[in-house]
Amino acid sequence: MLKLGIAMEYTDVLVFDEETLLGHLFNLKKVNYIEIEKYEKYGEKRLAFIEDNDREAVKGLSYEEKKKRNHLLIMRGALFEIAEALNYKLNLVIGFLAELHLKNENYKIKCYQEGKIYFMKNGRKYNE
Fold first, then answer.
1. Which long-range contacts (CB under 8 A, 24 or more apart) does 50-54 make?
2. Spatial distance between the Cα atoms of 28 and 25, rounded to a whole number of angstroms
3. Residue 11: Cβ within 10 Å count
């Protein structure tokens, strides 16, 4: 879970709420062969940098800050389990996650709605 959370941090998708991230991950199962190849190539070039990025991210953090960061990354990585997306290669995941930044607002809204529906069905309450 932590490594998947680190992939999210590396691709800078932690700027999105967990509903949108979950909705996006639900779409991983729908990726076609052409997209898979594109995502894998993108991710392959970046795999080597993930560990470097992780080391840089924790430099200068206190023990408590590292603990808080790891908790967040594990929680975000757990979204892969919810979306039943644990068995994908990391390079594919990196490319797929990074693609979220390029998606239009309608796609992101749809992802948010799908994620929110999942959480509501599973007991999360929203004050709106």
1. 50/3, 50/6, 50/7, 50/10, 50/90, 50/94, 53/6, 53/9, 53/10, 54/6, 54/9, 54/10
2. 5
3. 22
Nearest to 10 by CA among 41, 46, 59: 46
- Residue range 68-111, pLDDT digits in tens: 999 999 999 999 999 999 999 999 999 999 999 999 999 999 99
Chain center to CA of 76: 7
Does residue 14 contact residue 4 with C-beta atoms inside 8 Å? no
Q: How many angstroms separate the CA atoms of 9 and 5, rounded? A: 6
60: left (phi over 0), alpha (psi -120 to 50) or beta: left
Q: In this predicted structure, what is the pLDDT of residue 125?
A: 83
